[in-house]
Amino acid sequence: MAEIKITREVYERAPGPSKCVSRGQSYVGEGLRRVETRSVTSESDYANEMYVRRSEDNGKTWTAWQDVYREAYRARGDIELLWEKPESGVYNPLHDHYVALNMQRLFLENHHESYKKFWGEAKPTFTDHSFIWVSKDLKEWKWQQVKYEGGTDFSEDDWGREGYIHTNKSYSGCNLEVLENGDILFPVGANVMKCCRILGVDVNDVFPSCPQIMNGLIVFRGRWNEAEEKYDLTPSKPAVISDLKSSRGIDEPTIIALKSGRIVVAFRGSNVMSKGWKTRIQKGTPSHKWYTFSDDGGKTFTEPVPWHYDNGEVFYSPASVSQFLRSTKNGKAYWFGNITGPQAYGNSPRYPLVMAEVDEETGFLKRETYTVIDDRDPKTESEALQISNFGLLEDRETKDIELYLTKLGADREDKWRSDAYRYIIEVE
Questions:
Q1: Which stretches in the chain have pLDDT values below 70?
Q2: How far apart are CA 101 and CA 119, in angstroms?
Q3: What are the chain's domains?
Q4: Which H or E run contains 118?
């Protein structure tokens, strides 16, 4: 196996007690211009501060930080809206524009109450919707709502209008692929009740526990419509998973188109048990990363099964995000995520963080390429440590992979006091 060199540095120390700082970078356009985001939070799934800065020289020098919190987080009475306009996107060379995928979260009550009722009572007190954005110049962006059923578009004048909030609900996937023919491909976690309805099956036979808040999978292929200046989006046949296998359905899907033509989606499941969610999962049910694939261009996907190595060995993984990245240095596809032992339960443990090469024919991980990026230091770090929720970037000059994450929970005395780290990964 070719050697992979990994270096790690503390990128920013926590700015104070009970404060978690997160950083991430992406390229803007096809040159060396970068944008960096910085957020500070003291609560789950919600940023309390948000900033951006820019670099024209590949990160050597930066502008001053700009506070953009009020642009991304807005409120009208008790209703709160979280929706960020993209700064960058994936370049589509056939149509000479940039395309981005992002998600809007609408809290029907303030976010504290919404999350409390979601986690405790399985009430759909917030709704997610996915959007693609297109820009020619990376300044003016035009959004397009991702739809798999009827319903109205989002209205700035009436955030919570009927016909919008409870239709086409979806959790945006982790990435968007631009194919060689100019089509785009991306996954979303679509409401499992709606997925079952499209499939013509009874959701009570698949996911009776809490279908109002959980998701199945739909993959969209988009073909550019020059006349209307938008993508014609075609949804795949949905894929669903039983709540006896994953009590949280299909979460945070990530997609890759392999050189063989196979399209693979890997996603986060969960074996967590919850009275509020009326979960049916049995104690001792293993926790995996799950995968499904398509050999017909993304029209249909196989029934999800536990992901495994190319030697047939199944691995275990907590409920945590993962991502694919294809290196332009060697053309190889890599997967990044948490692989643990069979003790994984719910969201834990979220260490070690690993990477492995993806087999281009099957979509399995090549066992011999398994590489640990970072692991918990039992002498200094808490068992509640999370080495997850990362962002990826490939340096356009060195072709090294940059990985940004916050080591949440490392401090044994202060859960939220967490530093941001940067890892430089040199592949062969």
A1: 1-2
A2: 26
A3: 5-426 (2.120.10.10)
A4: helix 111-121
